[in-house]
Amino acid sequence: MPPHIAHDPDHRLWVLSGPTSSYVLHLDDEDRLRGLHWGRRLTPEQAASLLERPLPRRQFEDPTDGALALDAAGGMRYGHAAVQVRFADGVRDLELNWTAESRTDDTLVLTFADRHYPLTVEAHFKVYADTGVLERHLVLRHTGTEAADGPVTVVRADSATWTVPRLNGYRLSQVHGQWGAETQLSRTELPYGETVLSSRRGTTSHHANPWVMLDDGTATEEHGRVHSCALAWSGSWQLTVQRLPTERVTVSAGFGHAPITWQLPPGAELRTPVSAAAYTEGGFGGASRAWHRYLLDHVLPHPGELRPVLYNSWEATEFDVSVEGQSALAERAAGLGVELFVMDDGWFGSRTHDAAGLGDWTPNAERFPDGLGPLIDRVHELGMRFGLWVEPEMVNPDSDLYRAHPDWVLHHPTRRRTEHRNQLVLNLARPDVAAWMYDRLDELLTKNDIDFLKWDFNRPFTEAGWPDAESDPEALWTEHVHNLYAVIDRLRTAHPHLRIESCSSGGARLDPGILARTDQVWTSDNTDALDRLDIQHGFSQLYPARVMGAWVTDSPNPYTGRSLPLDFRFHVAMAGVLAIGGDLARWSAAELARAAELVAAYKRVRPLVQHGRQYRLSSPGDGELSAVQYLAPDGTEAAVLVTRRARRFGHADPALPLRALAPDARYRDADTGALHHGAVLLSHGLPLRLAPQDNASALFHLVRED
Ligand code: GLA
Questions:
Q1: Burial class (CB within 10 angstroms; exposed 0-12, middle 13-18, buried 19+) of 302
Q2: Which of 30, 126, 537, 554 has the fewest CB atoms within 10 Å, counting from its CB?
């Protein structure tokens, strides 16, 4: 296997390759780094031949506008610049000289220095041999030593500019959303100009998610070329998708948002988060599978683990928690086969409603007179792990924490404070807040046998001031996230058995940055199985089922009022990390018995769902039928989850051809014993035989016979 990064010094080319794709960098005569190619795999010789095709020259144009992989503001380029600075004397143009290269088989660092000012820019690359996913980030360093050098203001430091090749048309795929309706997929023609997806909320947000996919408008679920990229960051972010009139398209991905800047004093550096990208040829499904593989194998902290079936008490009890009530739920949950019992909000301080107690992370003395120990012991006795809800970055003004440290919240002394859900955001950029948070959680985890935290974040930043900051108060936007990551990383090191769920009013903190240090994500507070189909469809575009928390809750659903059969609710939730979140005290004996069967069925296919390859056979937007197939990594088993909303009288269910099976193999239905030929399943599909009623559903488990 040739090295994943090949260098051709004569042509000043680097070819970064995965098994089927390459990204080619070229340094031109003026040391500008061009993105020469992003697509199918090329040899260095093939890549060099691209230099025989010079960029077209036009009046009033710098031909490199929209063609640079490291796009630093300056010269006659007017498009979105990934690196924008302001030097102490007001100069905003950068002129970078290439100064160094360091390279291994799979990493490359190209260093540039400004011709005049004390600033270096390092462009870091890492390519993954299995998927071809390419990671990039930048390090900007103020190399001055004297105060006289003045600070450098960094206006924009995008981790990467991804240069998309010329296509016959451009279509943009993205997800948008809101509370209760996260990750709604949309595909639209890319307009000319700049399309900016962003969060200015201090967190990833419900409203957009930091990834995009681009195709020429003809890609389908299983066919066609797709260029995709994402940003690993859980604070404010910006993805600028630019289509110039010259038909050059770039995606520039970075943290921060205008007009927030970074101040670099002499000697300081700014390290950006990672932006990763993938070029795939198997349609949107192929792109998703590359991302799933990359996140499963290279990003998640415990990739090989199976996530347990979880119970969460929130919808059952809300703030009304007690040892007796939780124990009763735990007993019923254990009877269903649940493996991890999570007590949600309402267990600490004076938190009997959402207006008090947030920040006081000690058990409520009336509700838990002997601490959490008795409940935790009971849960462990029942054979389950114990999890607890926390929201460490927040405070209710009516709390002991706030009374002791009113200066710890984000605020401007001259401005009113927006309270949302009766809470304020702690300024985690402050070292004392970060130290308090670590100590408090470490104590909680040391004194109690807690296996799992549901780590929530229920409101965005507003009035983000830091009046007594020693240096630039705007650093809080970035430092909040850095300190959040550092606290989680330290807790995980100190408590190696701890697993964490990222939650933010549902799915507002979902990104590859938080996934590097958590084990699963709470997908949405909306647990209505029908709405979930769309949410999960959007979620699955980038993120694997292994991190997608999905609860089965009561019917009618407490939020939407919609009634759906138990099987349907289960079959939808089985598409991710199955969990139960209903009020089990109100489930009938028949419902509990059926639920136990469905949990057992899930456990049989769980390795395929959580670690296998996912094929979206029919999407919720396609019609009444929604279906997802999961194939074991070794291809020996497949699971198919099917839901059908309604069937019109006189119409048969559609055929459902499966994917990626061995045509010559035979597959036995593990439940009915029926034997199917691979080739027949691939071309004619699975005979569905769903019940005729509305909201029918099924799980099929096929095992290859050899
Ligand atoms: C958020 C979460 C919910 C629940 C509540 C508790 O809304 O998304 O799942 O934990 O907070 O207050």
A1: exposed
A2: 30
Other CB atoms within a 10 A radius of the CB of residue 416 amount to 9
Say if CB 613 and CB 546 are below 8 A apart.
no
Q: Position of tokens 């011709």? A: 115
Task: Find the domain containing 294 and state its range.
Answer: 66-298
The closest of 101, 39, 45 to 228, measured between CA atoms, is 39
Please indicate, yes or no, if residue 642 is contained in any of the structural domains. yes
Pocket of ligand 1 (CB under 6 A): 314, 344-345, 389, 456, 458, 503, 505-506, 522, 525
Q: In CATH, what number is assigned to the domain containing residue 154?
A: 2.70.98.60
The pLDDT, as a whole number, for residue 2 is 63
- 665 and 547, same domain (yes or no): no
pLDDT, the chain, mean: 97
C-alpha to C-alpha distance for 323 and 452, rounded to whole angstroms: 18
Q: Is residue 338 located within the same domain as residue 258?
A: no
Number of structural domains found in the chain: 3
Question: What confidence score (pLDDT) does residue 1 get?
Answer: 58
Same domain, 321 and 468: yes
Contact 106, 5 (CB under 8 A): yes
Q: Cβ atoms within 10 A of the Cβ of 457, count? A: 22
Q: Which atom of ligand 1 is nearest to 389's Cα?
A: 10
- Both 142 and 196 in one domain: the answer is yes
Asked whether residue 499 falls in the same domain as residue 574, the answer is yes
Residue 20 falls inside a structural domain: no
Phi and psi angles of residue 549, each rounded to the nearest 5 degrees, phi first: -65, 130
**Active-site residues: which are they?**
456, 525
The protein residue with its alpha carbon nearest to ligand 1, atom 7, reads: 505
Half-sphere exposure at residue 417, Cβ-oriented, CA atoms within 13 angstroms: 22
Pairing verdict, β 107-114 and 96-103: antiparallel
pLDDT confidence of residue 54:
85
Closest atom of ligand 1 to 421 CA is 12
What atom of ligand 1 comes closest to residue 454's alpha carbon? 10
How far apart CA 347 and CA 343 sit, in angstroms, is 8
Cβ–Cβ < 8 Å for 178, 159: no
Nearest CA to ligand 1 atom 11: 505
Given this model, what pLDDT does residue 430 score?
A: 98
Check if the beta carbon of residue 656 is closer than 8 Å to that of residue 618.
yes
Residues in the chain with pLDDT values less than 70: 1-3
